[in-house]
């Protein structure tokens, strides 16, 4: 009895007389079973803490962030003995709702039957708003519970624990349905809290790795943009290259480039992520837009919804592009100032992607793109200067050598013709002298063209020259009229198309029309319009339209149109027009 009492005391020295009496009445088998249960409980706790330690050591080994989150959920379920587990990741936006919900224990087909996953309302939102551990006997009894959707498995016991990265809540661990029935214990809570702390560190490391990888991608794209711009043609094509590269590296749904030094001169030049009409882009007003805001302030702008922000214009809707919401605009800034804006836009449901993006990355990319454009323009100017110097040399050689020799030959032939008695020979020599004079005039005209300071030359002079040249074939001189600021409003890249279309139209009139009058009108206002009208016999039925087809293709490529009106005996009118912007 004395040893028995000593044994009872060794089990629990704090037990009183009543407890000792109860133990004294307990059979030896029951007492042994109680001792074994307590020993097994201690061993089970030690095993769980060892499992936690092993999990922490191997948690983030070679895992991506998504794989790490799935592993954390599985470990939490094992440690707490939960049938179901989930990790809700908070969004980056101001509402702080769930943007990702990683589950464990629910079959994929059941998830598909349930449909849309939780976003952080009801009981789940309670832990978001008050990030502290929460244990419940029955979920349904809590006043914040919304209940479960159709096809959702039944759940009662609940344990929720926030996952923090430093002082910020990254998300929450949710555990339900304790295995074997019953409730989650305080010890379960402690071990899951410890797991959440370790998970926060592992998640931060994984995020830092992904951010470093993302930064490296942007740096690579920024370094590559100069080579890409140099390899492309200058102007709009280079802007398209920038937009395509920016969309690829950012993952945005749409990227567009607006070029201009102020709100009044700002125009849409290029877009990536959709197809569009160049004329519609050029006509889109940009005075009230994110691009205009950036050009005026010189600082990047981020908005959650471009369709509702008072500073923005919904460019995508206006031009029939895919619908977008969140957007970022960054300035194309060089040493000479802001010369435009680069705008990134995402689908409305991708707000978190915008908030997760470091503004410094697209800003640096845009600055490098602006610098590449500036260097490319400088290189083009240098090449053009070399071309002009070569032209000057050729012009001097033609003037000082070729023209002088031709002039001397002409004088010699003219003096010989006066010494010849036969009229027909004298006439032939006179014609040769006239031809030499005409050749000298042509060379001088070529020298003048070589001295022009633009590849497009003076478009008005070029049009006049083509019309005068056509007079020799038509046997009469067409009438020519210019309307508007032709020299200043026709873009250099459009001039070759204008001249080609004019040449084709006059050639058709000379070869097929049998006309006695041709009118040519080149006008510029909102559009560049070239009209060529003759009074000939019209276009015969079944005539080949290769020339007409080329004129239409040139107009289509520039966002314009080519109209041909013809009737037998009433002549032909060709009206070719493209946007002037």
Automatic annotation (TrEMBL):
Which GO molecular-function terms appear in the entry?
phosphorelay sensor kinase activity; protein dimerization activity
Q: Where do the record's region annotations for Disordered lie?
A: 1-25
Extract the Pfam families matched here. Answer: GAF_2, HATPase_c, HisKA_3
Keywords (alphabetical) are:
Kinase, Transferase, Two-component regulatory system
Q: Where is the Histidine kinase/HSP90-like ATPase domain?
A: 493-581
Q: Which SMART domains match?
A: GAF, HATPase_c
Q: Which GO terms describe its cellular component?
A: membrane
Q: Where is the GAF domain?
A: 64-213, 234-383
The protein's name is Signal transduction histidine kinase
């Amino acid at each position: 009895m004395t040893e028995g009492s000593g044994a009872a005391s060794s089990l629990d020295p704090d037990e009183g007389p009543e407890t000792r009496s109860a133990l004294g009445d307990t059979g030896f088998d029951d007492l042994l079973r109680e001792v074994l249960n307590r020993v097994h409980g201690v061993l089970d706790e030690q095993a769980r803490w060892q499992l936690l330690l092993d999990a922490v050591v191997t948690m983030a080994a070679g895992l991506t962030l998504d794989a790490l989150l799935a592993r954390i959920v599985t470990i939490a379920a094992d440690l707490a003995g939960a049938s179901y587990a989930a990790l809700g990741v908070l969004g980056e936006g101001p509402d702080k709702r769930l943007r990702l919900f990683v589950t464990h224990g629910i079959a994929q087909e059941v998830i598909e039957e349930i449909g849309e996953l939780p976003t952080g309302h009801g009981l789940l939102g309670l832990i978001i708003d008050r990030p502290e551990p929460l244990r419940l006997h029955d979920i349904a009894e809590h006043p914040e519970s919304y209940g479960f959707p159709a096809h959702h498995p039944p759940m009662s016991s609940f344990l929720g624990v926030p996952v923090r990265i430093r002082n910020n809540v990254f998300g929450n661990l949710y555990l339900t349905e304790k295995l074997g029935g019953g409730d989650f214990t305080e010890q379960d809570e402690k071990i899951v809290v410890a797991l959440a702390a370790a998970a926060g560190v592992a998640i931060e490391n994984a995020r830092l790795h992904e951010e470093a990888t993302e930064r490296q991608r942007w740096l690579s794209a920024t370094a590559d943009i100069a080579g890409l711009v140099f390899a492309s043609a200058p102007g709009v094509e280079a802007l398209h290259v920038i937009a395509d590269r920016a969309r690829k590296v950012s993952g945005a749904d749409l990227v567009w480039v607006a070029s201009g030094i102020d709100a009044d001169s700002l125009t849409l030049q290029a877009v990536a992520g959709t197809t569009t009409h160049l004329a519609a882009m050029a006509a889109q007003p940009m005075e009230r837009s994110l691009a205009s805001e950036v050009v005026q302030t010189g600082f990047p702008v981020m908005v959650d919804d471009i369709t509702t922000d008072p500073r923005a214009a919904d460019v995508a809707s206006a031009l029939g592009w895919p619908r977008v919401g969140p957007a970022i605009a960054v300035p194309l800034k060089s040493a000479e100032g802001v010369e435009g804006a680069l705008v990134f836009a995402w689908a409305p449901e991708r707000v978190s992607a915008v908030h997760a993006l470091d503004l410094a990355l697209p800003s640096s990319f845009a600055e490098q793109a602006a610098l590449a454009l500036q260097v490319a323009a400088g290189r083009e100017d240098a090449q053009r200067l070399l071309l002009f110097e070569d032209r000057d040399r050729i012009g001097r050689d033609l003037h000082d050598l070729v023209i002088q020799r031709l002039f001397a030959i002409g004088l010699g032939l003219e003096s010989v013709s006066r010494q010849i008695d036969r009229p027909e020979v004298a006439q032939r020599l006179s014609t040769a002298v006239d031809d030499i004079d005409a050749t000298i005039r042509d060379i001088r005209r070529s020298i003048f063209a070589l001295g022009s300071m633009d590849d497009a030359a003076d478009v008005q002079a070029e049009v006049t020259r083509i019309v005068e040249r056509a007079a020799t074939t038509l046997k009469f001189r067409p009438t020519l009229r210019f309307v508007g600021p032709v020299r200043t409003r026709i873009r250099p890249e459009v001039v070759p198309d204008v001249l080609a279309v004019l040449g084709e139209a006059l050639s058709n009139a000379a070869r097929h029309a049998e006309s006695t009058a041709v009118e040519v009108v080149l006008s510029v206002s909102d559009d560049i319009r070239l009209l060529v009208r003759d009074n000939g016999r019209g276009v015969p039925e079944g005539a080949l339209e290769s020339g007409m087809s080329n004129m239409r293709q040139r107009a289509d490529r520039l966002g314009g149109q080519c109209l041909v009106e013809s009737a037998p005996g009433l002549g032909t009118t060709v009206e070719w027009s493209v946007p002037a912007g």
